Amino acid sequence: MSHRWIATLTYLVSALATPAFVRADAPIEHADFDVVIAGGSTAAFAAAIASAESGARTALIEPTDWVGGQLTSSGVPAVDEAWHSIKPTDPAAAAYSVSKVARMPENMTPGFLSLLQSIEDRGNCWVSRFCFRPDRFVADQLVPLERSVSDNLVVFLDTVVKEVELNEAGDAVQSLTCIARTPRPGVSDRGYDRLPSADLADWYSPRDSERFTKKLLRFAAKPTLAAGRRTVFVEATEWGELLALSGLPYLQGVERTADSLECDDTCGQATVYCFAQELHAEPVNEPDRATQADRLGYGSYADKADAWEKIWTYRRIRGQAKPAAGDICLQNWGYSEKHGDGGNDYPFRYLFVSRAEADLQRGDWRGGVDLEALAASEDRAYAWHQWFRGQAPEGIDPACISLCPAALGTGHGLAKLPYIRDTRRAIGLDGFVLRFADLTGPAGAKTGTIFPDRIALGAYPADVHPISGCTMPGYVVAAHDTLPFCIPFRALTHRNLGNLLVAGKTMAQSFLANSATRLHPIEWSTGTAAGVAAAHMAATGRTSRGALAAISELQDLVKAKTPIDWTLPASGQ
User: Fold this and answer.
1) From the CB of residue 475, how many other CB atoms can be counted at a distance below 10 Å?
2) Which of 51, 71, 93, 383 places its Cα 20 to 30 Å from the Cα of 168?
């Protein structure tokens, strides 16, 4: 019997025995918010800021103690921008630089660009214009931004979603029940001394534990539409938890064909557990941990004589020129199926349980993740740290290299949560799903589909890190280049729930489209659009369908915060 069947039977027994989670105490009621954002992602924080700036009383539910998602808590502090060009069909014509278009200030969310430009130490990496220490970015950029809208924004840190309640008609979210945890005195590193694979069950338990005291919080829709207002919820979690907890259909994994919604829900992108390494002037002799991971190596850089130095400086978040004492290097290195080895990318098992298993877990929700995959990705991170340290070139003593927990705000040395590249995805109004075909085309087209309800912009090629042994369809393998593309409001909607918007990786989009929209600037853009839209819907009492019917009104509001139309270079530039 396979582990999947065993897991399914285990969940079934659990669901039959405990049809609903046991509440330790009555929840604290919150029914005074206009917008409630289930967060943890970059898009979630952007949505919270935009919603609050738009005048809505906003709640952000954050599973860790750092806002920012992949920018911070997931440890990917190198902002991914489009880097590619598209060759025209005419060999005599110049290539079309998508990178140039995407990096024009007119095409970037002004608030996000301002944050990045205010970074004093950009790390001296070579993968991005903007590499930085996550701890400093939280303290210097995100917390001040959060405080600037504190009259309208309340952030609930260390809080996870446990239950989603729909209204009687099943066409709106009625409430979210959440669990907020507070580390007990004596628990070190604010509760981030233990890895998530060991602590996640505690995070989602409503009962006090040896490590945490708990509070149940219930975020409810306003009981009446006073003055025409309504409560709008936003799904911007990293794990698509509201989608799974709603009991309604959603997408997970890769679609079998480009035009189908039939997905292989255990075949998706690899996850990666990021960490930072510091190079010291004197040996620190950090002890090794026992690890099990194998197939460690330089992967696609195996043939480069300077592979170690290139990887060290790839996502460096502090340092100058050549590797030297004082450097801090962020590790997020891929696995090469061709070479049979790689870095801390974990491609051997999908992070999420199947849709059937997630449905069975709804009675006692624990995140819907495969804890064995999570633990194995943690183990691989430590193994890569030790292997890579041991490969230090002549002139660098491996004993001078250690983990740098302070940069990621944990005691265990890894990021607070793993970085995921795909997740559960919504199905939008009237079954809309953003397709990769809408993002690409010949160089002469200049942009992807210009949707009449466009509300955000993005530019990045398809970037798939497949699960090893999971056969990706041919249309996925062949995909790469995109044009500068538009994201429509329908991608931010839910087919069944009129007061729920989605942003970031949980948008109504295909697996392949997500592989091009999952990057930092695009998450910030879609999050900003979702925040403005949520505040607008809350103020007008409109459902998502009503907002779509009056899309020009919403577009005017969004344009004040993030562009919705591409500015293209003048001919010949």
Assistant:
1) 16
2) 51
| Positions of the chain with pLDDT lower than 50, given as ranges | 1-19, 572
508, 490 contact by CB (below 8 A): yes
Cα–Cα distance for residue pair 192/179, rounded to 1 Å: 17
Dihedral (Cα; 346, 513, 129, 114), 10-degree rounding: -120
Sign of the C-alpha dihedral computed for residues 430, 436, 439 and 444 taken in this order:
negative
Q: What confidence score (pLDDT) does residue 25 get?
A: 76
Bridge partners of 59, per DSSP, are 36, 154
Query: What b/e sequence results for 112-137 when a residue is b if at least 16 CB atoms lie within 10 Å of its CB, and e otherwise?
Result: bbebbeebeebbebebbebbbbbbbb
Residue pointed to by tokens 């989603």 = 164
Tokens matching residue 50? 């935009």
Cα atoms in the Cβ-side hemisphere of radius 13 Å centred on 20: 6
Q: Tell me the C-alpha distance between 266 and 252, whole Å.
A: 8
Q: Please give the sequence-ordered ranges of beta strands (E in DSSP) within 49-107, or none if there are none.
A: 58-61, 85-86, 96-97
| Token pair in block for residue 117 | 């430009």
Cα separation, 92 vs 200, whole angstroms:
57
Tally of CB atoms within 10 A around 346: 28
C-beta of residue 466 within 8 angstroms of C-beta of residue 493: no
**Alpha carbons 489 and 296: distance in angstroms, whole number:** 43
Name the residue type at position 142: L
Residue 11, pLDDT score: 40
* Coil vs helix vs strand at 308: helix
pLDDT in tens, 116-160: 999 999 999 999 999 999 999 999 999 999 999 999 999 999 999
The predicted-structure confidence for 30-44, as pLDDT tens digits, reads as follows 999 999 999 999 999
What are the helix (H) ranges across 391-472? 405-408
For residue 568, give the amino acid letter.
Answer: L
d(CA 225, CA 546): 15
Angle at alpha carbon of residue 528, lines to 143 and 542, rounded to 5°: 125
Residues 6+ apart with CB under 8 A from 250: 240, 243, 244, 355, 424, 425, 426, 427
pLDDT score at 229: 77
pLDDT of residue 75: 98
The alpha carbon of 94 is separated from its chain's Cα centroid by a whole number of angstroms, namely 35
Q: With contact defined as beta carbons under 8 Å apart, do 61 and 38 qualify?
A: yes
Q: Give the three-state DSSP class for 189.
A: helix
- Look up the pTM and report it: 0.95
| pLDDT of 3 | 42
